[in-house]
Amino acid sequence: MKNVIDSFVSLGHWPSAGSFGFNTDILATNPINLSVVLGVLIYFGKGVLNDLLDNRKQRILSTIRNSEELRKGAIEQLERARARLRKVEMEADEYRMNGYSEIEREKVNLINATSDSLERLENYKNETLHFEQQRAINQVRQRVFQQALQGALGTLNSCLNSELHFLTIRANIGILGTMQEITD
Fold this sequence. Notes:
This protein has a domain of 122 residues. The chain is 88% helix and 0% strand. The chain is built from 4 helices and no strands.
């Protein structure tokens, strides 16, 4: 808090600014602003981010478990389909002796249907995982940004007294006026 007040008070003691003024050199002041914002984000957002990431990790693990259960179900279906295929193959041998080829077509269709079903399930699992990961990332970004802004505003509001607040507003109005004159 003392450093923040000292930085505002010391503005009047800069030799290049004359009697009183602000450093309007954006390249000189941005690293200070960025370091303050990053410090506030790291300080206030670390715990929240860890909690959010842990929650998302649990949800993703749950989704993976569900996908694995779906995969196991698909494998069981595949085993049943293979058993049925073996049965169909035995019947096909019997019919083949008699000259029937329709069973062979049924076998191919059954294999193709099972392969398509497994492929769809695998694609669904991969899409679900990708979607959940993207949603988790977006939610974490939004939460961190909101909480960082709330924390920064709370810190600034609690640190500024009325006089310092009015000085800051006047200084910012002066900077905006100077910027407008430069752009005109």
